[in-house]
Amino acid sequence: MNKRIFIRLAATALLVLHWSPSLVAAQDLHPFADTSRLVSIGGSLTEIIYALGKEDRLVARDQTASYPPEVRELPDVGYMRQLAPEGVLSVSPSALLVLEGSGPPEALEVLASAGVEYQSVPESYSAEGVLTKIRAVGQALGVDDEAASFAAQVEQQFADLAAHTDTIETSSRVLFILSTEGGKIQASGTGTAADGIIKLAGAVNAITEYSGYKALTEEAILAAAPDAIVMMDRGGDHGASDADLLANPAIALTPAGQNKAIHRMDGAYLLGFGPRTAQAAAELADRLASRTH
Q1: Which pTM value belongs to this model?
Q2: Please, where are the H alpha helices in the chain?
Q3: Strands 185-188, 213-216: parallel, antiparallel or unpaired by DSSP?
Q4: Are 42 and 61 in contact (CB under 8 A)?
């Protein structure tokens, strides 16, 4: 560990014990005192900063930031939910903008006590949630007017999306599969980003019996009777092939399985709830309507 960072952390260790969590949450943000070395935690926030043309203030981002492509040239300070103070401090930030849910809280407490001002932007899986994020980023960066103008553009995109999905006569029942690790189908219930994008696309989540993500039994898959399956387009345990999915006897018997209606989209694009969400929801709606890959 860099000696300067170590000393900074050590000097603040006792202060952390008495730190107040009231520094974290905020619905209405205020301008940072200094955004000359800004670190953004949360891919959607980073996208908004680029959309506002303020990327020159960024000195680092977290692993969830993958768009626009040039963001990958910035230093990566780790995964948003597993931040390490020394990793963030290594880029000498003047301000830290984090998406709600970033952490762990202890790491954020250490950073605050080390003198890194930070603010939290609320997360919500809806059109209004995206607009709130844009306005909040504008507040934190002191560019309220530019953010308001951009939010108006995005709001129109959501209005166009709503007009498009209102023409859907029969909503598709969608099963969002997060992973198939160990042969278990981990699927989205309510209250998730997947649930939010399904609704925006004018479709119906086939799983409403629980919130969050859980493993489904074969009986539950059959009862859900999805017309389509949606997944993130990536490898590893999240990247089961069509053949793997259709080898599951329950999935094979559903309308989605019989019609091979399986759709994959980039995870950050599909579930990020950032500036591209209206576009992603419209694309998903079109795919569901076509019932093609």
Answers
A1: 0.88
A2: 3-17, 43-51, 85-89, 105-113, 127-141, 144-165, 193-200, 218-224, 242-246, 249-253, 255-258, 267-271, 277-290
A3: antiparallel
A4: no
